[in-house]
């Protein structure tokens, strides 16, 4: 098992760096904490969550508690057993028939899983668990099960609380969990020392497990973006995506942690306005919703409107952009032709294989590891057979990933350019529509300015 884990780690590390545009670890030294350690994280993205943590551990291998349904298929059982996974049996799976056990067998099987977990921690190992018990792609933290606390306390109790087990809470924050080239922030909290609950455990084990679970929940929430419902999540996403730079002009858009801080600030502001000025919040919600729908109907972006002003150098910028588009097109076409098949197959496989959005990203990444890993060598071999030129073959091989990334960048830039041209055409044909859209935008900026000033003043007076 250790050999398989070690062999798989380098390609997974590379695949994660390719899949995510920006991957940031806050307080990376916490992620390297030695064992015995129980790693507890939120669980929005199924298999991607353990891969992110395991791939960024430098030394000791992680073991994982995984739901038993992953072990039913012979192929997946072979993979998960060799990936250091210990099966746990959930009551809902047994009752629904998803797990191949009766409810009566459930307790005995989980006692066995707990025993293996105790033994692993007793040897100074690292064990990862997802205390929510299920994976749902939402910016929420669902109620935590007490399993993580009971394992940590049970392992310590066997050694009279002299073992030194700690729980490391980790917040996993995805900008868009299912999208290729999105961002992710791995945000570990300070570890919880399990021995601090020794006296409470001796008096009342259940109360100690509840108290430890509550502390784990609190530290996870402090390191996560947590929205209360879909409506709040939609509003905050719309504001941060469209007007975040205006609200906090000094924040660094290149940092997932800065985006995390911006979102947390927006959520605090929303909560404050709900208590102190709900009418202002309701108006902002309505205006942003209408503006977003108008942009979608007209197939425009806010950036296109933001750049629509006359301004000095507009003609020069337009000519320079056009020149870049023309000169970059051959490189884009080369990158597209040579990368399209291995690029498109993973998304096709993911769409056909599952309807659960939580499985889309890991399926895409794993499939991409195979498609690029097989087709790149095949393409390089074909070029060598056709040219019989080693240097040309080497140059072609090196060009594949470079031009592939360039093709993605070129397409994004071209899309933005086409939106600005669409806006210009719309302004000539239907100027009233564009004026109304710009007026909507100005109204929203005014509402946001008033909200920001009121919130800042309220915080300053506290």
Automatic annotation (TrEMBL):
Pfam family, one: Acyltransferase
Domain of life (superkingdom): Bacteria
Keywords: Acyltransferase, Membrane, Transferase, Transmembrane, Transmembrane helix
Gene Ontology molecular-function annotations: glycerol-3-phosphate O-acyltransferase activity; glycerone-phosphate O-acyltransferase activity
Domain Phospholipid/glycerol acyltransferase: 37-175
InterPro entries: GPAT/DAPAT, Plipid/glycerol_acylTrfase
Ranges that cross the membrane: 325-345, 357-378, 390-411
Signal peptide: none
Name this protein carries in UniProt: Glycerol acyltransferase
GO biological process: phospholipid biosynthetic process
Organism from which the protein derives: Hymenobacter jeollabukensis
